[in-house]
Amino acid sequence: MKYLWRLLPFTFILLIVGCGQQNLSALDPQGPVADMQFSLIRLSLYIMIFVIVVVFALYLIVLFKFRERPGDTHIPKQVHGNKALEVIWTTIPIILLLILAIPNVMATFELAEIDDSEGAITIRAHAHLFWWEFEYPDHDIIAGQEMYIPTNTRINIELESSDVIHAFWVPALAGKQDNVPGITNTMWLEAPNEGVYLGKCAELCGPAHWQMDFKVIAVDPDTFETWAANMAEVPYEEGEITEYAVEGRAIFEANCLSCHAIGNEGGNFGPNLTNFGERTVYAGYMEATDENLENFIRDPQEWKPGNNMPAFSDMPQEDMDALIEYLKSLKVLD
Amino acid sequence: MSNAKAQSKSVLWDWLTTVDHKKIGIMYLVAGAFFFALGGLEAILMRIQLMFPEFSFVPAQTFNELLTMHGTTMIFLAAMPLLFGFMNYIVPLQIGARDVAFPFLNALGFWLFLFGGILLNVSWFVGGAPDAGWTAYVPLSSESPGTGVDYYVLGLQVSGAGTLIGGINFLVTIINMRAPGMSMMRMPLFTWSTFVASMLILFAFPALTIGLLLLMLERIFGATYFAVDFGGNVIIWQHLFWIFGHPEVYILILPAFGIFSEILSAFSKKRLFGYSAMVFATLIIGFLGFMVWAHHMFTVGMGPVANSIFAVATMAIAVPTGIKIFNWLLTLWGGRIQFTTANLFALAFIPSFTMGGVTGVMLATSAANYQFHDTYFVVAHFHYVIIGGVVLGLFAGAYYWWPRIFGYKLDETLGKWFFWLFLIGFHLTFFVQHFLGLIGMPRRVASYLGGQGLDTMNFISTIGAFLMGIAFIIFVVSIFTSMKNKVTDADPWGNGRTLEWTMPIPTPEYNFAQTPLVRDVDALWYEKYEGDGKMKAAEPLGDIHMPNGSILPFIMSLGLFISSFGFIYYHEGFLWLAILGLVINFGAMFVRSIKEDHGYHIPKEEVIKGGK
């Protein structure tokens, strides 16, 4: 029985962890930064549960012991106060807070440290209404919506914004930092395990704020190098893809390329689409189906209100089909 | 204008021109309750939208307007005015004064608040409400299309001026108008907390005024304080906003603390435990409230030094707050606790607020805050402190002071239904939100995707919100069905401790026929058990000097209201309207300045008659 009591806080934590999704929950950390933050969350939670238990116990005793019983009309003693008690309930909270404050200050400094040592990778996470651009200065490539990282590598992230304030949050890997226009913020994270981690914009940025999701995809370092090398190239030259997709490429060049780059070719007003065929969601949140893609292209405002993409509502159906065929063929990791 | 003459005027004119703190208090309560219902409705609409994943009950843009107006309305137009209502009515009575120090200003403060609140809500009908959150972070707010944010800026500027005026008035009233014997350290805790909250208003609101002015210049007149391309800085707004915004939450919670101190003490029939510790804790909370604003900004990139300092400073606030919690518990200890509806609300506050307080310390942990910030964890936290603190305080105060203010007691049976439904609904709504935040739900999202583990808890949360809505309807019904429970006894609860329970009900216009002499903390209680049960008089019966009513506060506020439209539609060529409004405003000020007004006297005979 004694041991069961000791296990109680852990079962409590397990219970909460059970609710969340592994690649989204801050309570199921998948990397050292989220780990550090989770251990602080746990420490603070334990201290606070202690406080709550003390207050609730006193409270319940008071309620049961001193409630008015029928017929009781005595006048309670008018107590003024008690110095010793005041000292006790001033000192104990101070000690409890110090137990929390010291590791917190240490962690705050550790998280702010930018370690540029050999092997670390810098990624510039640039937020736009309502999508994410990931620039890899060391590799001279730009990716849209999906941030590929090598496992077990320190990733230093520089956060920027081109319009309003956004925030970069990947709960399972690291807490958030704001993307503030005019300012470059920094943070770091690391993912020991391969996997897809869900990221969200955490600062109100407009109507499509809730749809401004992204992914952090951790792959082994070799795969990452392949990915990065291929991202710099236009994936397919003529002859390598179906004729149908070649048709689509022409439509893309006429309508889309000025904003959406493929490889290092094209504009940067919208997400880079070099590896679009590997996306598992479209527009950051929609299930990856042809129908959704077509709907979005024809009326972006309907699906992500307030974004800056013009509508292509009048595009002939055969052009649309070819374009979709081309977009789906854009892969760099095959 | 004598009393007889006042009665010949219409009721409407009487209320429009009144400078009586009691009537102004009632107007604050009525207007505040209206806005509270409005803000509640906005909350219910948001919770319906979030009831199911990817639900389309309201469009995302409307959702953003709802979340902005819910926060703005609840803070500026509901919670604060409702507290101001109680302060206005009760504080002069508690300190033995016949009115506030500046009755005319008091009326002006109310009308400015009301016109500001109306102005803000006009935006719903003319092209959309503000949509940048109640915090109105730039550049989202400065670049928000349409006129919504203009209404926000001008509406808050006008009502904020009213709040500032009200705060100054309370400060002067409490410093200067206490009855003989009522030293500072004999003031009831509600008066003390009103005093400290007013100090916070005095120092915090100017920061908001400046912020709003800059935002107005930026939006309407093309200034570039926040425009990054022109060398502006967007973080300045956040500092200005939170230098105001953090003390603001203490402006709300401290008076609620005061209300609980009165009620817990009254219904346990015990003197407040550790009175001086309670007073100093209130002062320290007020002081520290100005030292912690940047804990709202841990993730904007202030660096580890600033983050650590603000983290530790914020944690420090837990100490005086803990002192208060334990002193309340010890006030109850050894008492004879009566479970009236008023006291139920006060008792429910202790555990509810403690839960909100501990998540506050968790949020203060800066490194962990990177996970909590801008998620539903924060939403849960501040609703636990604001509903679990301020709103429970308002309801407790309403039940406690209702007979004093409106002359009848609210039905206790309906009151208990209201209490339990509201309390259960509140915890149901917000407890699960802690976990929603931790498992990956950001705040201020118009919807969320299914299959991410967020569905069930959002559904539960919405059910809780419905319960709170039903509970509030029961409360409103009970206001009308309880009207027959008339009371006339000066001390209807039978355990009043302070001066507001010493005059007949309804409260005479002049409050006290004779200014009372105060001989202890809990002046009335002292006379009950150490004296003959009646307050000693500090002056002989005589004519009572009263201020005249005036329509000028209404006209001044109307002028600013009109002027605001001129500024909002400045680019459509309405500058003349802005000028016209200002002319009305300054014209009324001019009339006020040159017109001599010495007030009037209520003759002694009438006072003697009224006392019977």
Automatic annotation (TrEMBL), chain A:
Residues 18-115 form the Cytochrome oxidase subunit II transmembrane region profile domain. Subunits I and II form the functional core of the enzyme complex. Electrons originating in cytochrome c are transferred via heme a and Cu(A) to the binuclear center formed by heme a3 and Cu(B). Its EC number is 7.1.1.9. It is a multi-pass membrane protein. It catalyses: 4 Fe(II)-[cytochrome c] + O2 + 8 H(+)(in) = 4 Fe(III)-[cytochrome c] + 2 H2O + 4 H(+)(out). The chain crosses the membrane at residues 45-66, 87-106. Its cofactor is Cu cation. It is found in: Cell membrane; Membrane. SUPFAM superfamilies: Cupredoxins (SSF49503), Cytochrome c oxidase subunit II-like, transmembrane region (SSF81464). Residues 118-230 form the Cytochrome oxidase subunit II copper A binding domain. Residues 243-331 form the Cytochrome c domain. InterPro entries: CcO_II, CcO_II-like_C, Copper_CuA, Cupredoxin, Cyt_c-like_dom, Cyt_c_oxidase_su2, Cyt_c_oxidase_su2_TM_dom, Cyt_c_oxidase_su2_TM_sf. Pfam families: COX2, COX2_TM, Cytochrom_C. The keyword Ribonucleoprotein does not apply. Binds a copper A center. Keywords: Copper, Electron transport, Heme, Iron, Membrane, Metal-binding, Respiratory chain, Translocase, Transmembrane, Transmembrane helix, Transport. The keyword Heme applies. This is Cytochrome c oxidase subunit 2. Belongs to the cytochrome c oxidase subunit 2 family.
From TrEMBL, chain B:
The keyword Secreted does not apply. The keyword tRNA processing does not apply. PROSITE patterns: COX1, COX1_CUB. Keywords: Cell membrane, Copper, Electron transport, Heme, Iron, Membrane, Metal-binding, Respiratory chain, Translocase, Transmembrane, Transmembrane helix, Transport. The chain crosses the membrane at residues 26-48, 68-91, 103-126, 151-177, 189-216, 236-260, 272-293, 305-330, 342-364, 376-402, 414-439, 459-480, 551-569, 575-594. It catalyses: 4 Fe(II)-[cytochrome c] + O2 + 8 H(+)(in) = 4 Fe(III)-[cytochrome c] + 2 H2O + 4 H(+)(out). Pathway: Energy metabolism; oxidative phosphorylation. Residues 7-519 form the Cytochrome oxidase subunit I profile domain. InterPro entries: Cyt_c_oxase-like_su1_dom, Cyt_c_oxase-like_su1_sf, Cyt_C_Oxase_1, Cyt_c_Oxase_su1_BS, Cyt_c_oxidase_su1_bac. CDD domains: Ubiquinol_Oxidase_I. Belongs to the heme-copper respiratory oxidase family. Cytochrome c oxidase is the component of the respiratory chain that catalyzes the reduction of oxygen to water. Subunits 1-3 form the functional core of the enzyme complex. CO I is the catalytic subunit of the enzyme. Electrons originating in cytochrome c are transferred via the copper A center of subunit 2 and heme A of subunit 1 to the bimetallic center formed by heme A3 and copper B. This is Cytochrome c oxidase subunit 1. It comes from Evansella vedderi.
